[in-house]
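Database export, one record per block. Field names are fixed; values are copied verbatim from the stored entry.
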Amino acid sequence: ARAHDKQRRTVRETWAKDVPSATGVRLDFVLGESCAVPPQLRLDPLSCEEMPDATRGNKQDTPAHEAVDLIFSPRTLDGCRLITSPEPLGIDFELFADAVITHLGVYDHGADGLHGTLSVHIFDSVSGKMIVRQSFSPDDKLERRGMFLYKPVTNFAFPKGFLGSAVAQDFSEEDAAVDMSVVSCASDLRQRSKASRVMKLLPKSRRGGMFGALPLMVENVVQTRPRYLAASFVIDRHPDSKPPVKAEQRSQLRILHKKTLADTEDSLRVEHVKYSDVVTVGAVDTYRNLPLKLLLYFEWLTKNTRFKYLLKTDDDCLLNVSAVLGALHSAGRLSRAWWGRFRREWSVERFGKWRELGYSGNVYPPFACGAGHALSEDLVMWLAENRHHLKVYQGEDVSLGIWLGAVGAQLWDDERWYCSRDSYRAGGNRTDYLAIPNLSTEEMRRLQKRHATEK
């Protein structure tokens, strides 16, 4: 990361001192571009997307019912196409904060109540799992909000970052849904302002498939409105979630962050002149951008130098340079070689730091631990040449596993690349390690000094 000057200094003063310059080995610290959004205002602390201002237009600064109502006046639906088939219809959404869904809603086209039984589901749109379901019948006591009828459900809590789908089904000629994609549809859809403080509608609509299952037919739509008027819900900010940042606080945070960025830029300029080992690529320096950052560096590297192997490690890892170089020298020039300690049958996570949105499987292909691993030149060349065709996944290590699984990389599995600091300790603190991860700068200096005296 750009602000890791202490870590870079520690690397230069510990294991990097063992890199023999005369042998053609080079060391690069790969950085991205700065993120202009203060960390406290980011939708996801691991990305650079700004969270909407949850206090705008709200004097109390504490949102209550965050109704995701789709509000219409009758004249705005002129020319829209009615859907009278019972097939499932859905909209996708993403949560900005921990939240609780309290009501589900179904569209009431004629504003005259329901004539038959309909049902609404909330799905996890990544796994396809149904989370909550509610049925609606003419005999139910329903609450009207705009053009929707709502019914309470047992409160279901959802984490920040949850990707969901609200799906309604069983429409008929008497209880029709609306398709707003036709040119003649003059609808004027707007999402209630409070809802934008907790969630946003995604530019996706869903249709078809089995009843009671997540529709797999996904259609891209205009981001400001979904395609179908079918399902809705009422959502509250979870009582344990952090309160929104007030307007005056946001302004102050921006001023402080701008100064921090300027100070970091000045420091990096001096660092680059002094050491000439910093490479900056055109990706914002956040965790979510690590796969892109890696590909951009590969592209830069293959255009500017030739090599036999590329070794990637993190700035909190202690590298045993002599052991690594000795093993690579003995191996000679290999093709399609990937040397590391590989995780196998690693479960795909759907929430938290390692939440995966792009890979549909339940387990990843084998991938090397991030402490350190080496790739032969031909694999790096292939990755660089195909950068624009490679889909990025939640982290650079699992992305490499998925990408290189397609070309049959030859895995050279070596337990000396430790996957965690604890596994290194459990292994008896061996001195023949290749890399030890997750170390503080003080631990790196202490271990480097201890291993130097034990040689």
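Remark 1: The helical segments are 5-13, 247-275, 290-304, 321-331, 377-385, 396-405, 421-426, 441-454.
Remark 2: Confidence is low (pLDDT under 50) at residues 57-67, 69-75.
End of record.
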